[in-house]
Amino acid sequence: xxxxxxxxxxxxxxxxxxxxxxLAAGVSAPAYAATVARTCTASALAAAKTAVGASVSHxxxxxxxxxxxxxxxxxxxSSHRTTLAGLYSADQVGLAQVLARVQADTTCAAASTDAxxxxxxxxxxxxxxxxxxxxxxxxxxxxxxxxLTAAEPAVRLAIKLLPSSSTKEQAQTLYDDMAAQTSAALGxxxxxxxxxxxxxxxxxxxxxxxxxxxxxxxxxxxxxLAAAGSDASQLAALLD
Length: 240
Hints:
Blueprint: H1 3-27, H2 31-37, H3 42-69, H4 78-104, H5 108-115, H6 117-120, H7 124-160, H8 166-189, H9 192-197, H10 208-239
């Protein structure tokens, strides 16, 4: 894990949040809603069911992709990994049940009513995607900060053994900043995953404030960790 990878993770999270908002704008008035607005005919009902099927299929693909990513994210905590895996699986089962109900509906109005549960009960784009990204970012950032913290005793000893000189003073200054930045990063990343995974579809849109707050914490933590990493690199050169 490097400062660059943490910054990249934060960027991915930010993009996910923005993409989620755009996607939500598209699904808030899906194709089947327009269909229902017209006189319900057999062909209109069939078109509505097709549109619902496409919406569920896309969400299922997103959830499958997120689930697959869990296996290649070693710094995700075991508890968060388990929670996310359960969330993805439960959402896929639930969405399949919604689709089954829609396919069994005999009127456009019933299909429209049932289809709304795709959005309101699951919030795949607006909630699950940023939940996943921010949880991972918090865990990866915590791992990186803990790695630097673990190196601090050795760095302190190396500085102590240096003869008095401007190099020693510079090293001490860099170390002090590294320690402070690492501590700040740990504080920012702490609890991000738990806060994100506590959110539910029922809490939206009120939970959007939490999403923004946790994204800001991750961004702040990444900035501090990048600064700490820079200090560490300069210390390595001085103490080499």
